[in-house]
Write a structure and sequence with these properties.
The complex is a heterodimer of chains A (329) and B (779). Chain A has 329 residues and is an alpha+beta fold. Chain A has eleven helices and nine strands. In chain B, 25% of the residues lie in helices and 28% in strands. Chain B contains 18 helices and 40 strands. Classes of the chains: A alpha+beta (329), B alpha+beta (779).
């Protein structure tokens, strides 16, 4: 077998290395041949050396080619040997999840922040003035029955809505301003569709008299609702809240049946999602504002979250149930 | 508030407008429709006349009736107690299919053939009005044997439930709703009037006298009727049952019907209750006591407080031969305030009167008298007696452009004028041409200012016809501390989630028992909740952990092997001050089951848990627990320290709780969020030279916390010392209370490569302090 054949037929890198030593090593074929050079007659030396160099170059080239080939094969084998079944790892989840209500609340906050509203917060334990009186809800007003309140022994109460934050903000700032107030609120009601604690986001915009109209309120809420729910129709219905006048409730076309009527929308095709209106002059009076105009709106975060994420049981949101929470990873 | 199609048709002409149109109109003008239901009496249910009714020969409780059902006389066996001859009844003939699925077929009942069924109201889809079968009368229309019952409009009705807002007391009646529909859709509206006085009737003045103090606030109107009781009829019964306002007593039912129809507060008294034998008449006295008007008899017995409550004693009785009916009106604001302040007991009439009942008393009396005379022969004494209190009329002056600026659309004066007139407002346009003087009708208690007028315009025009306009707003600085905290908290939430925790939410309420059990502070009893919703939620929570642990237990119960929850929320101290905390719980497996851990991951351990807490709060340190609590293991827990302040604790859940809850290894942490602030990081100069790492192993007492060792070494202020931490430990019985601890430290100079000599010096320094402070020995 000549050298060419030996190199070409080397089955692995180890064999090739043996050949390299035999061929190019210190005691190898070429070293021994070059050693013979001194015994060659001078006139033949040049040809002998040239031939030997040519042969060496050719064999070196062949060797390198073979080496690369074998290395590639070896790498390929190694890579193949490291094959894993990646599908075995799809279920390995290590992340937790933000609670859907908080996630939804943040989505709402982000929208209004981008609309240049500033965020305000207030205490949960409130007094009658901030929660009711200043909001045009005198003690004997029948509308107080709309909200079943938690009271304390010292006549303080748990806020029934985020609206007292409006009052506090108005009493410490001067218009014009645009604010939102997100946070938990409390009503003494506990059944399939009510929990004693839930979350609201309240919005309030105040500027000088005659600057703000119902048309402006309509604009921002239409924009917000189509941003949040996507392609829905928005309907305003006149309604009543003691702190706004005129007041309206806002519906979106049912996202479950596209307005055709289903169980969720009680076959009306509409889902009620928020309340709003122009700030009642009595509210401005209570905080000492004169010659101003403004609008306000309030929404229940749980409702938004449940509609958007198709959550059917309100109470499950407060049970720390991982079967529910894991779906929001 | 329930209305029905046939009912409103008695007052307004809705032409052929569909139920949908009525529903849409009500929604558009602010009366939310909660439901629309069609009553459908099945085909094959017809008017039948019972010709004869005899006892069933074989069964005591059954009767055998011959019933004229138009095309034939049918023999029907009936089990109702109230069946008798000569009454009209609803008969389901052979082949009829009832709403509950029953198909009428010929049957033999105890040997007697029965060809049909005499029905009760509920069997054919109407509400319950009595026990037994429904007896028909002509209040529903002319009765003719064989006529299909669903051809009577008042039975084949549409029931619409309207959710009225608290300000619209004027709509708590059929007439009130009709007023609204007529204003919105221009329907022709009838007025309710009566012509019942017989020319020969005796005048009311002969039998009744009223005596009214001058400070009485109520308006009152009286009529006297000679009748043995007050009779109701089928239509009244069905309608009041549909309205959910069915009264057992017939007279009460009729009164309630007339009030429901008109909104006027109506009462009926026993004539004798007021009888004064000195003048041989009944005498009604009306006095004002502490702001409320009382109706009293001659002997000072109180019959009622106007708009507040009615005393049972003065009600008409079954044996009453003479009846006094009363219509009353009192300003809702006045009585609401007094009743609330004085905590006066009320009955159901207060719901209407405090929201604003109808002031048109004549209409109420007329409707009542019409209803009474429709169901039986009665004698009305002619004329009425009344006390008129002049309730001041509200008049609002406003400019057209004020209304327009609230709404955001330009209305012409004439448009506004037309809209307001449809709502029964009296509009005058003053010489300054754009000012309107608007007289508000007495029944609209809710309209007090220009904004209320704007709302009326919005209602009638429809919000759909108001444009959407962006607001031109001066640019404002919206960044503030509240927003900064909000963002910080949200970032905290995101970090917690990335460590595998699921955010949970629980109520701010807790069980007082939990405060005791976990040794938490309790809200001072003088500041405690007055009306908790349940016994398990009877106080404000002092910690987030009890509820998180309970949810953990439930998840474990549901076979969850890894329960990682966290919550951020408010807690309250003994002075009921609120503060925000974050709490974490990790229970069971420390990681998901997978192929590499052979489906058996290890349980959560201290290191894994605190690493997660460190990832959320990178700048905190852990120190030996300074104050034991009932929640965590006293010797496997730590203070969480930030900038030298203890801001919470972290550690193994107390073995007692683990055992009680029957859950696997659990670690918890609770942190006071008020200390979690966005800290500005400051960088120190970095070195270009290599770091040298050295280990120093010493024999030292097990009771010395590493933090103390670190502190002592740091006090040496070796400027090349970049980091120091424990690397390994070893203990066996020969070491007794000591153990071998390997301390690893990293050295680096900013100025040059550290020489072995310098490194040696530093090691000597460290060893010296360990020997001196802790009696450590080089191993």
């Amino acid at each position: 077998m000549n050298w060419q054949e030996k190199i070409t037929q080397a089955e692995n890198l180890a064999r090739l290395e043996e050949i390299r030593v035999e061929l190019f090593g210190k005691k190898g074929y070429f070293v021994s041949l070059f050693a013979k050079l001194k015994d060659i007659p001078n006139e033949e030396k040049k040809d002998f050396a040239n031939n030997l160099n040519r042969e060496k170059t050719e064999l070196e080239k062949l060797f390198e080619e073979k080496k690369e080939l074998l290395e590639n094969e070896a790498l390929k084998k190694e890579i193949e040997s490291e094959k894993i079944d990646v599908s075995m790892f799809s279920h390995v989840e290590t992340a937790g999840a933000i609670h859907p209500v908080i996630h939804t609340m943040n989505e709402i906050v982000e929208f209004f922040s981008a609309m240049n509203f500033s965020l305000h917060t207030g205490p949960l334990v409130e007094d009658d003035f901030h929660n009711f009186e200043a909001l045009n809800l005198p003690k004997f007003h029948p509308a107080r029955e709309m909200q079943d309140t938690f009271y304390f022994r010292d006549e303080k109460l748990l806020r029934t809505h985020t609206s007292p934050v409006q009052i506090r903000s108005m009493m410490k700032t001067k218009p014009p301003f645009k604010i939102i107030a997100p946070g938990p609120v409390f009503r003494r009601d506990y059944d399939l569709t009510h929990t004693p604690m839930f979350h609201q986001v309240e919005g309030l915009v105040v500027d000088e008299a005659k600057k703000i109209s119902f048309a402006n309120l309509k604009y921002i809420l239409e924009h917000f609702l189509t941003h949040f729910f996507g392609d829905v129709k928005v309907r305003f219905r006149p309604s009543f809240f003691p702190f706004t006048e005129p007041s309206a409730e806002v519906d979106i076309s049912c996202i479950f049946c596209n307005g055709d009527g289903c169980r969720v929308c009680k076959h009306t095709g509409w889902l009620e999602v928020l309340g709003c209106g122009m700030v009642d002059p009595n509210v401005f009076k209570a905080v000492g504002y004169k010659n101003v105009s403004g609008y306000a709106f309030g929404l229940g975060v749980e409702r938004f979250s449940m509609l958007k994420h198709r959550i059917s049981d309100l109470r499950s949101l407060y049970e720390g149930d991982l079967d529910l929470l894991e779906q929001f990873r | 508030m329930i209305i029905t199609r046939s009912w409103i048709k008695e007052i307004i002409d809705i032409k052929n407008d569909s139920d949908k149109k009525i529903e849409d109109t009500l929604n558009a003008i602010g009366h939310e429709v909660a439901s629309v239901k069609k009553i459908t009496i099945p085909d094959g249910v017809v008017v039948g006349k019972v010709i004869s009714c005899e006892k069933h020969p074989e069964a005591d409780k059954l009767s055998v009736c011959k019933v004229d059902i138009g095309k034939e006389i049918a023999q029907i066996v009936c089990g109702a107690k109230n069946v008798r001859a000569d009454i009209f009844v609803a008969v389901a003939v052979l082949g009829a299919k009832l709403p509950d699925g029953l198909e009428i077929k010929p049957v033999v009942l105890r040997g007697v053939d029965s060809h049909g069924m005499i029905c009760s109201s509920t069997e054919i889809g109407l509400p319950k009005i009595n026990d037994g079968i429904m007896i028909l009368d002509e209040s529903i229309g002319k009765l003719k044997a064989g006529k299909a019952l669903n051809s009577y409009e008042s039975l084949n009705d549409t029931v619409i439930e309207v959710e009225l807002t608290a300000n619209r007391g004027d709509c708590l009646s059929i007439n009130g709703i009709c007023r609204e529909l007529s204003a919105a859709n221009g329907y022709q509206k009838n007025t309710i009037s009566c012509d019942i006085d017989d020319d020969n009737a005796k005048g009311i003045g002969r039998v009744l006298q009223i005596q009214c103090d001058s400070d009485v606030n109520a308006s009152l109107m009286y009529k006297v009727i000679e009748s043995k009781g007050i009779k109701s009829n089928l239509l009244t019964d069905i309608r009041m049952a549909l309205a959910g306002n069915y009264k057992e007593s017939e007279s009460q039912r009729v009164l309630a019907y007339a009030t429901y129809m008109t909104g006027v507060m109506l009462h009926a008294y026993d004539f004798d209750f007021f009888y004064n034998k000195d003048i041989d008449k009944s005498q009604i006295k009306v006095i004002n006591e502490n702001g409320l008007d009382k109706i009293i008899a001659n002997d000072k017995k109180v019959a009622s407080i106007v708009g507040v409550r009615h005393e049972n004693e003065a009600f008409i009785k079954p044996e009453s031969k003479m009846i006094i009916v009363e219509a009353s009106y009192v300003s809702p604001q006045k009585i609401s305030k007094i009743v609330h302040e004085e905590k006066i007991q009320t009955d159901e009439q207060f719901y209407n009167s405090s929201r604003g009942s109808e002031p048109d008393l004549e209409m109420g009396i007329c409707c009542l008298c019409n209803t009474i005379s429709a169901s039986g022969k009665v004698i009305f004494y002619s004329e009425k007696l009344q006390h008129k209190h002049s309730h001041p009329q509200i008049s609002i002056n406003c400019k057209v452009d004020e209304i327009n600026s609230v709404i955001g659309r330009k209305f012409e004066k004439i448009e506004l004028n037309n809209i307001l007139k449809r709502l029964y407002m009296d509009v005058k346009i003053t010489p300054e041409q754009d000012t309107m003087m608007i007289g508000v009708p007495a029944f609209r208690h809710d309209i007090l200012n220009m904004f209320d007028i704007a709302e009326e315009v919005v209602r009638i025009v429809g919000i759909d016809n108001i444009p959407s306009l962006p607001l031109n707003f001066v640019e404002m600085d919206t960044y503030n501390a509240d927003y900064e905290n909000y963002k910080l908290e949200y970032a905290f939430i995101q970090k917690s989630v990335s460590q595998g925790f699921f955010q949970a939410l629980h109520f701010v309420f807790d069980d007082k028992k939990n405060n005791k059990k976990y040794g938490l502070s309790e809200v001072d009893s003088s500041l405690e909740l007055l009306n908790p919703i349940t016994a398990e939620l009877d106080t404000l929570r002092a910690s987030l952990l009890p509820a998180l642990l309970e949810s953990t237990r439930k998840n474990v119960y549901k076979s969850k092997k890894r329960v990682a929850l966290f919550e951020i929320g408010f807690v309250f101290d003994k002075d009921r001050n609120e503060s925000k905390k974050a709490a974490f719980v990790w229970c069971g497996n420390k990681e998901p089951e997978d192929i590499l851990n052979h489906g058996k991951p290890e349980n959560i351990d201290f290191k894994t848990f605190v690493q997660k807490i460190k990832a959320v709060l990178p700048t905190v340190e852990f120190a030996m627990l300074s104050k034991a609590n009932e929640i965590v293991h006293p010797f496997a827990s730590a203070d969480v320290v930030l900038d030298g302040k203890v801001i919470g604790f972290v550690g193994k859940l107390h073995p007692k709780i683990i055992k009680e809850m029957d859950i696997p290894a659990t670690f918890v942490a609770e942190i006071d969020m008020s200390f979690v602030k966005a800290a500005v990081k400051t960088a120190t100069k970095t070195s270009k030279y290599q770091k040298s790492q050295r280990d120093l192993s010493v024999i030292i007492s097990k009771n010395i916390p590493f933090s103390a060792i670190k502190k002592a070494i740091n006090l040496l202020e070796i400027k090349e010392l970049k980091d120091i931490y424990p690397a390994d430990f070893y203990s066996d019985s020969s070491l007794k209370d000591n153990f071998s601890l390997t301390i690893r430290y990293l050295l680096q100079s900013n100025d040059d490569s550290l020489s072995e000599e310098r490194i040696g010096t530093i090691t000597e320094e460290i060893l010296a302090v360990l020997k001196k402070d802790f009696k450590a020995e080089l191993r």
